[in-house]
Amino acid sequence: FPHNEWQAPIDVPEQVTGYEEDSMVLEARGGGCSRVGLESDNHTWYASFAMAGCTNLTATWRGRKYTLQQIHFHIESENMLHGHHMDMEVHMVHKSADNRSLVIGLFVQRSHIVVEENRFLDRLLELHYSSDAITSGVLENPYLGTMKTGDRFYSFLGSLTTPPCTPNLEWVLIQDILYVSPRDIQKFEHFLKTRPQADSYGHDDRPVQPLNFRPVKIGKVSAIM
């Protein structure tokens, strides 16, 4: 199959193709970003570091350095894991100097009493009622807030999950699941019900696309700096 037939999201199979020889390095120069832009469209809500003019957050993968552009959310998860959706999925969208794209995906579930909530996501989801670039007052490093050195992930080629569904994107799906409060997810579902492209259940996920024999491998995060 040509690569433009490899669309996203996918259902990650139980049997992967193999293991990556390369590993991913995440870096927050100067400790991260102190400003983030907040915007919404017909589809979802974005926390935009590009809008705020911050280029301190980068991911190096397969010999190419990507700069974090924005973070957005999908309910329920767009990608599936062995036939199952999660409550939510976070997408960290990156771009390289030669205009290639990398999406880091994070699975999110409603927390239970005994599980510690993810403070970074809890704080970020609380921001979606604001409408302009704000100063957070502290340096934000979304990598440290959501991942750790040694984390394993699934890697594959895919596409954007919103129109024009541009192909040939690098996808990385972190295996560990993050947790947020049920309140945060309920608020975001309520917000999505006001978006023209979300459904009446407050969902904004694209259906799973065929694998079409593409390789899905396991890699790891070797450093977060």
From TrEMBL:
Q: What class of enzyme is it?
A: lyase
| GO molecular function terms listed in the Swiss-Prot or TrEMBL record | carbonate dehydratase activity; zinc ion binding
Record keywords: Transmembrane helix included?
no
Kindly give the InterPro entries that the UniProt entry links to this protein. Alpha_CA_prokaryot-like (IPR041891), CA_dom (IPR001148), CA_dom_sf (IPR036398), Carbonic_anhydrase_a-class (IPR023561)
* SUPFAM superfamilies named in the record: Carbonic anhydrase (SSF51069)
Would I find Manganese among this entry's keywords? no
Protein EC: 4.2.1.1
Highest taxon of the source? Eukaryota
Q: Which residues form the signal peptide?
A: none
Q: Per UniProt, which keywords does this protein have?
A: Lyase, Metal-binding, Zinc
Q: Which residues form the Alpha-carbonic anhydrase domain?
A: 1-220
Which PROSITE patterns does UniProt cross-reference here? ALPHA_CA_2
Reactions catalysed according to its record: hydrogencarbonate + H(+) = CO2 + H2O
Protein family: Belongs to the alpha-carbonic anhydrase family.
Task: Indicate what this protein is called per its UniProt record.
Answer: carbonic anhydrase
Give the species this sequence originates from.
Answer: Zooxanthella nutricula
